[in-house]
Amino acid sequence: MSPISRGFHRRHQEAEPVGRVPPGQYVTHDFPVLSAGPTPHTPLANWTFSIEGGTSPASWTWEEFQALPHETVTVDIHCVTRWSKLDTSWTGVSLDVLLEEVSYDAPYVLAFCDGGYTTNLPVADLKGGKAWVAYSYDGSQLPAEHGGPARLLVPHLYFWKSAKWVRGLRLRETDVPGFWEMYGYHMYGDPWREQRYAGD
Amino acid sequence: MAGTAVRGRLSWQTATVDAVMDETPAVRTLSFEVPDWAGHEAGQHLDIRLTADDGYRAERSYSIASAPGEPVAITVERLDDGEVSPYLTQDVRPGDEIELRGPIGGYFVWDPAMSGAEPLLLLAGGSGVVPLRAMLRHRSRTGSSVPVRLLYSARNWDEVIYRAELARLGDGVQVIYTLTRQQPPGWTGYARRADPTMIAEVAWPVAQAPLAYVCGPTNFVEAVAADLVALGYPPQRVKTERFGATGTP
Fold first, then answer.
1. Residue A61 bridge partners (DSSP)
2. A83: alpha, beta or left, given left = phi > 0 and alpha = psi -120 to 50?
């Protein structure tokens, strides 16, 4: 039983759309930035996106990546620090398109990024129109502080899984913790089950 | 990366507010008596959960302001359009019960063992000084002699948090202020937003293999971290924590 905080009450009366905001989250209209280190700036000429660890790895240059079929999606995003942002618009390449190019039977990936960041995800969460490598936000090139030139977009999981500055996926037989997961954040991170930290 | 072991479940527990102390007109430190606290590192944060009498709940994260081994404390800046910070800075009294859980995070942390003899550079924008203060206290309490420079950017002198404490840090710690909007009469310190020139003047030379921690609003952290990288600091020696526009870390 939680103690009642005497005198505390809801201050924001703005009704949040039913079923859109996971427990413990509040809606923000800003786009906060969270990252553990300086923002990397990789020249597009040096940029590649790779899928490693399958029986037939694949890699795309920036130019090749731009030529892949892309789509624009409008999704809600949920940060573990408790802000949610509704109806965000992104353009990028579906992971269905990318995973189609490799043969594999591994059930997990570890996404890797410029700056050394990693995060772990089940392959099943990347397939079926649920995940993208996005390079455009709200109609413009994705700004570096928000993960540009390209970031993972997996909106049904907490947003730390949508790794900024992503450079590829390593297919894995086992699920290993990525960067924040090593520091006690949840291995899966479903916002609707409030899986913020290990054990939640 | 040197990983802290993944811990077991972080349970909510009921803490009692032990003391409240006003740091500035808009900033207050709350210290807690927590029955079952596993200990924390300097730089970690915790989650607070408030419950209204109609069952409405709000949760927020706050940096821990106290050193390892000290009673758990947070320092909260009131955001006038906020929901939780006005309550914590105006309504809470000693003896009140509040739910919290933690510690959380393990990357933006400092311990003397991580530095050795290599100097420490702390860069704070506004209330971003809070986790850095935990590091400074930890340094003092452990008797570390690692040289430290703290650059603290605040809008004016009255908004400087921990002013008295920072004035008596003593040996091996240099505190450098920049007051970006308004300066007291006779002010001889910096009086502008942090810029590459200022960072070059304040930062330890790269050859000394310094370790840097930057905490503050996004624009401060983005600019300062980029300046350090431009000076030759390896990105993995620049740890950052950004506060979003919503004021929560």
1. A48
2. beta
Order across the sheet with B45-51: list the strands. Answer: B57-63, B45-51, B97-104, B13-24, B27-33, B73-77
The answer to whether B52 contacts A4, with C-beta atoms less than 8 Å apart, is yes
Residue B94 lies in a domain: yes
Q: List chain A domain ranges.
A: 47-193
- Among B6, B60, B104, the residue with its CB nearest the CB of A182 is B6
Walk along chain A (200 residues) in steps of 10 and give the mean pLDDT of each run.
88 75 90 88 96 93 98 97 95 98 96 96 98 98 96 98 98 97 96 96
User: Is B50 in CB contact (< 8 Å) with chain A?
Assistant: yes
User: What pLDDT score does A142 carry?
Assistant: 97
- Residue range of the domain that includes B167: 112-243
Residue A123 corresponds to which tokens in the numbers above?
């392959």
> For residue B32, what are its two tokens?
């807690």
Q: Quick count: other Cβ atoms within 10 Å of Cβ A57?
A: 16
Q: What is the ipTM of this complex?
A: 0.90
Q: Which of A3, A32, A38 sits opposite B235 (nearest CB)?
A: A38
| Residue B232 and residue B142 share a domain | yes
Q: State the total domains in chain B.
A: 2
Chain A residues with CB under 8 Å of B50 CB are: 5, 8
* Cβ-contact A85, A29 below 8 angstroms: yes
Distance from CA of A176 to the nearest CA of B (A): 12
Cβ atoms of A34 and A146 closer than 8 Å: no
CATH of the domain at B47: 2.40.30.10
- For A116, name the nearest residue in chain B, comparing CA atoms only: B236
Do the domain assignments include residue B93? yes
d(CA B237, CA A38): 10
The minimal CB distance from A36 to the residues B60, B107, B244 is found for B107
Residues of B in contact with A83 (CB under 8 A): 244, 246, 248
| B2 close to A (CB below 8 A) | no
pLDDT in tens, B146-194: 999 999 999 999 999 999 999 999 889 999 999 999 999 999 999 999 9
Q: Are B133 and B165 in contact (CB under 8 A)?
A: yes
Do A131 and A122 meet the contact criterion of CB atoms below 8 Å apart?
A: no
The Cα angle at residue B224 between residues B219 and B228, in degrees rounded to 5: 155
CATH code at A47-193: 3.90.420.10
